[in-house]
Amino acid sequence: MLGVALVAPAAWAQLELVPVGAHVRVTVATDLPRVEGTLLANGRDSVAVATSPGVVRRLATISITRFEVREKSRLAGAWRGALIGAPVGCLVVCGQGNELGGSAEVAGAVAAWSALGAGIGALVRANAWRTVRLAPRAVIVAESPTAARLPSVPFDTSAIGPPRGTRVRLRLDPPAAAITGFVVNETTDSLFVATTRMEQLRLSRQTLRSIEISGGVDRGQGALRGALGTIGVAAAVGGILCAAQPRCGTEWGGQPGPGPRLIWGSLLGGAAGVVLSPVGGVIGWNIGVERWIPWWR
Q1: What pLDDT does residue 147 have?
Q2: Can you list the pairs that 170-177 forms with residues at least 24 positions away whose Cβ atoms lie under 8 Å?
Q3: In terms of domains, do 96 and 197 share one?
Q4: Rg of the chain in Å (alpha carbons)
Q5: Is 241 in the same domain as 262?
Q6: What are the pLDDT digits (tens) for 87-122?
Q7: Can you say whether residue 95 is alpha, beta or left, with left for phi > 0 and alpha for psi between -120 and 50 degrees?
Q8: What pLDDT digit, counting tens, does each position of 167-213 carry?
Q9: CA dist., res. 168 & res. 165, Å (int)
Q10: Where are the alpha helices (DSSP H) in 4-73?
Q11: Are residues 121 and 283 in contact, defined by beta-carbon separation less than 8 angstroms?
Q12: CATH number reported for the structural domain that contains residue 172 in this entry
């Protein structure tokens, strides 16, 4: 017979505040490896985490020593953007000390690029881990470490929809805004989804027009979008600024009208955007673009 002992590992009340559908990372006080995935259920005795589509791990609450939630952070985004902007700025201006006036000017230019990257990163934000504070609570546990190990939730092979823990994008009939979230449960006539707004919805299968599952992040497509977006924004800003300035475009003589100034400014802005495109490309690569694949049973 297993003995019992009073310990103070973690308070389930704090874990219940973490919404279903959040991306979590859980460390337990046994020989089990750290578990990372989508939170499907959190209760008094255990939490369920989908580590991959169709694979759900249940962990005893009393065994949890560290619980982290992934969130978007402006500080993390600014830090990452600064680290990206500094080397990119050095690639552009380093070696041009004579043209810029000296090493101090080069350092200033690199700092400006770093600040630009930090600003963009703070605007876009980046993923960061927030630790959920676990207040002590006296509980009775078995002395054997296997007591903290609960069986994994079996995968229902009779299910006709995407497996639990799958990230999906759903389109409804009649047409409405697409719903994005994670499958937390399903029945023969309904699909239960935790949305990105941390809402739990029950959707009738008869109203689903299409189901798409996430195929991961395409970083190459993200880099391309970031680079092209940077060029496009720079061209638009240059065109607007030049069109608003009567003296813009007079370097070659004459007095061009607003239309020619708009074109000339767009060309100048586009050229500047090409120079800045590595920054946008790196940021786009870091963010990526999610691929969506139609679900077929």
Answers
A1: 37
A2: 170/203, 170/208, 170/210, 170/211, 170/212, 171/208, 171/209, 171/210, 172/203, 172/207, 172/208, 172/209, 173/207, 173/208, 173/209, 175/209
A3: no
A4: 26
A5: yes
A6: 777 766 665 555 555 677 677 777 887 888 888 788
A7: left
A8: 888 888 777 778 888 888 888 888 888 886 667 788 888 888 888 88
A9: 9
A10: 12-16
A11: yes
A12: 2.30.30
d(CA 77, CA 119): 9
Place of tokens 């609960």: 150
Range of the domain at 184: 167-213
Do residues 226 and 281 share a domain? yes
**Tokens standing for 189?**
């006539």
pLDDT bin (cut points 50, 70, 90) of residue 135 is low
* Any domain includes 156: no
CATH number for 55: 2.30.30.520
Q: How many CB atoms lie within 10 A of CB 285?
A: 21
How far is residue 14's CA from residue 53's CA, in Å, rounded to a whole number? 26
Q: Tell whether 83 is covered by a domain.
A: yes
**pTM beyond cutoff 0.85:** no
159 lies in some domain: no
Co-location of 208 and 235 in the same domain: no
The answer to whether the CB of 41 falls within 8 A of the CB of 86 is: no
Closest CA to 184 of 174, 176, 175, 193: 193
Query: Looking at the structure, do residues 246 and 206 belong to the same domain, yes or no?
Result: no
What burial letters (b/e) apply to 103-113, b meaning 16+ CB within 10 Å?
Answer: eeebbebbeeb
Axis crossing angle, helix 258-287 with helix 103-124, rounded to the nearest 10: 70
> What does the mean pLDDT of the chain come to?
76
Please answer whether residues 39 and 61 qualify as being in contact, where contact means their C-beta atoms are separated by less than 8 angstroms.
no
Q: Domain count for the chain, please give it.
A: 4
CA distance 95 to 103: 9
